[in-house]
Amino acid sequence: MATGGPRMIGNVITWLNDPSHWRGTGTTDGIVTQLERHISYVGIALLIAMLIAVPLGLLIGHTGRGGSAVSLANAIRSIPSIGLLILLVVIISPHFHGRTQAGFIIPTEIVLMLLAVPPILAGTYAGVENVDPAVRDAAYGMGMKGGQVLLKVELPNSLPLVISGVRSAALQLIATATIASFVPLGGLGRFIYDGLAQRDFPQMIGGGVLVALLALLVDLLLAAIQRILVSPGVSGRFSKRADRRRGAAGEADSRVAAVDEAGVTV
Amino acid sequence: MIRFDNVTKRYPDGTVAVDSLDLTAETGKITVFVGPSGCGKTTSLRMINRMIEPTQGSIWLDDRDTSTIATHELRRRIGYVIQHAGLFPHRTIVDNVATVPLLLGTDRKKARSDAMDLLERVGLDRGFAKRYPAQLSGGQQQRVGVARALAADPPVMLMDEPFSAVDPVVREQLQDEFLRLQDDLGKTIVFVTHDIDEAIKLGDRIAVLRVGGHLAQLATPADLLARPADAFVAGFVGRDRGYRALGFSEGHELPHHEEPTVRMGETAPAASEAAEWLLAVDGEAHPQGWINVEQTAGREVTEELLYRGGTLATQGGSLRAALDACLSSPSGRGVVVDENHRLLGSAQLDEVVQLIKSEPGPAGADGDTGTGTGTQGTSGATAAVLQKGPA
Amino acid sequence: MSGFANEVSSSPLSFWSYFMDHRSADLQLLWSHTWLSVVPVVLGLVIALPLGWLSNRFSWSYPPIMTVSGLLYTIPSIALFVLIPPLLHLDQLSELQVPIALTVYSVALLVRVVADGLGSVSEDTRQAATAIGFTPLARLLKVDLPIAVPVITAGLRVAVVSNVSIVAIAGTIGFQNLGNLFTTGYQLSSGTSPYYPPIVLGLVLCVILALALDALVILAGRGLTPWRRAARG
User: What is the structure's pLDDT at C231?
Assistant: First the structure.
């Protein structure tokens, strides 16, 4: 009990405020470097997962076939990430003979990617499936081809759910990427595991704080991206003042035009 | 011209939605498909633009078999309006309207400026252009739906219950504007509704379908009212057919007599100097309503004193309006106005009845309406009229 | 522990003989893993029900409750594990920090689910129940909650399955559960000679546990909504 409480919070703040912890020392990497690594593990896995899950989800939603792929992806969620990571590490890393970190990075990326696919796939699929049937009917009725209906109508209207799937995946990846530090890789998990091993609890908690802050920032960033990409007609974020005030109307129009372009090219 | 040639739609589970349909929708006219739910009216409509493929038979657009045209090209040449408009939520109103021109490769600027013109044409302010569908009422959305279907100026329009999801007042407004628009455009239109009154109001010809996808009758509205082909059609067309049929008998010279009037704001005459009911008009001879002289003698004629229950008959308008003007007038004298709603005079009920009696053909109320079209239908019609009579 | 390596073959398929050799220790791990996966979700539901009801009943409370639970949900589980002790004046490696963190997590997830589930009850049904004469409490228990069961069940499935995975992570920072099997296997694997049995055993037991708990939630959900079974025919 002696180590808990306000004094510990003070110690954590002291740890986080120490510039040498940010820059690193000759022997240890600092917060900046570990943050970069953490972001790159997450970013790569998220990108690959999106490249797989978004087209797949669009296709399943559009054709109405392959719903079992969604169930399968959901079943993957029951595999514990840490167990899978360690299994893949002991399988793969011997082939690299410890010369590079690839033996650890590849398993980490596989685990993170498997974690990210289910929420993105489910979000995309649900997004397309939830498009008002009358809207889809009208799109075909006006002579759009299947691909045009998918890209010009179903995708822009399913964007909120697609992006919310990506947001949920990103949060899970940021949390789970910490376990990369268990198989000895970098990332913000490094401070948690090192702090634990050295009984340096301010460092351990400081690492936790950094992970939480990163998660919050990334979620805010993705929320902002969502705001830019999703048409106000879909999100319901109409500029009410634009109707009344002449000046604001012009601004709203240019934003609308930008959204329209994005809606077509995404 | 759209021609159904022995078209059948049978679903894999064996249900027959449309059964051997032979039918022609004439160029430049509104053909209405009407019937109870499950009669195959929407299926028939959707087979025209191949949203549904017929199981057998063929549908011809002028002299081309539609099955030989690529579906997306066929559909881009056919305007399509559906019940809940089906506007694209993510696009502004102007871009919704410009959809088909853009698909056809029209340049964006021209497509948008054409779309703006169309919005005005369907009665929407240009200010709506940059809004999104969710910001519009149901009636406004439906106007946009019509504009979107018209955008590429297709010769043919398919309309699937376009006005049935809006409230009755707006619906009537939309119907009137639709008819006005069609007078200008002269499109070949196939219109689906379950509402027989809408069918009669809008249709140049009406196809009544019965459950199982059989064509029960194809006729003009007046014919349909006067000569239902069988008991099903008679039942579906409903009550008051004889009376409603008078709505199609137009262009008569209504007899009218000079009617004493009082101007709004003047003093009502004493009871002894006038008949019981006196017609009030404004400064430009537009009838405003009736006043009861016994109750209003000597008082200034104001809005509160008016009895407004009476309807007006327009010279050259339908016999139904003339008859109604007489029946609804407290004085028993039907008010007749010219096209500018100026008072011409009043007509007596028996004069209008005389006019109806002299009317030959289907709309005539001389009891000879059912000749040669099946006794069942005629007796149904008579029964319906009689039922209404005493009430 | 390093002695284990000599007792059992290192082939992935010999996880069963590994299990039989360390049966009592492994069952202990399985038991604590189960406990850690289930209790926080149950506690989370107990806390989320009134909060979800509140945010559904009083619309002013919906935005703040959802914002706070959304924020809590963005905090990574491992961060929450290490943040709980200083915030609650606990020891750094307290037995309570994992269940507390998981409970917080479950509440954050389930509040929204409960609110959405209660929100899915149609206004017609509500008014009919009131008109029949249900008191507000009786209506909540006998009408609103039963109708919300399918939505809540779906949320519970996500909570319970993801908990099994998160608990295993807690195993890598010193807590006793199936996650220890992974650390054991990792420590016993050296350079070029992987030692699979505990890792595979851990994966198998975790997946079985997750699927079993998932099935239990589904069964409980069905038991509480017999009318849905009738509709399914």
Answer: 63
In chain C, what residues touch A104 (CB-CB under 8 Å)? none
Is B208 inside any structural domain?
Answer: yes
Q: Are A187 and A264 part of one and the same domain?
A: no
What is the structure's pLDDT at A196? 81
B with A: touching (≥3 Cβ pairs within 8 Å): yes
Of A137, A144, A242, the CB nearest to B72: A144
ipTM score assigned to the predicted complex: 0.83
Tokens representing B363 are: 């709309």
Instruction: Sketch the domain layout of chain C as residue ranges.
Output: 39-166+200-228
Q: What was the pLDDT predicted at A98?
A: 61
B209-217 mean pLDDT: 91
CA distance B313 to A35: 84
How many domains does chain A contain in total?
A: 2
Listed ranges A52-61, A75-84, A200-209; the one with the highest mean pLDDT? A52-61
- Provide the CATH topology of domain C39-166+200-228: MetI-like fold (1.10.3720)
Share of chain A residues as helix, strand and coil, in percent rounded to the nearest 5: 80, 0, 20
pLDDT at B380: 36
Q: In angstroms, what separates the C-alpha of A250 from chain C's closest C-alpha? A: 31
Identify which of A141, A145, A236 has the shortest CB distance to residue B51.
A141
Domain end, chosen from B240, B271, B297, is at B240
The owner of tokens 């449309």 is B18
Last residue of a domain, one of B240, B272, B299: B240
Instruction: State the burial class of residue B203 (Cβ atoms within 10 Å of its Cβ: 0-12, 13-18, 19+).
Output: buried
Pairwise pLDDT comparison (C148 vs C5), residue with the higher score: C148
The answer to whether residue B379 scores a pLDDT higher than 70 is: no
Asked, for residue A1, whether it belongs to a domain, the answer is: no
Position B366 in a domain:
no
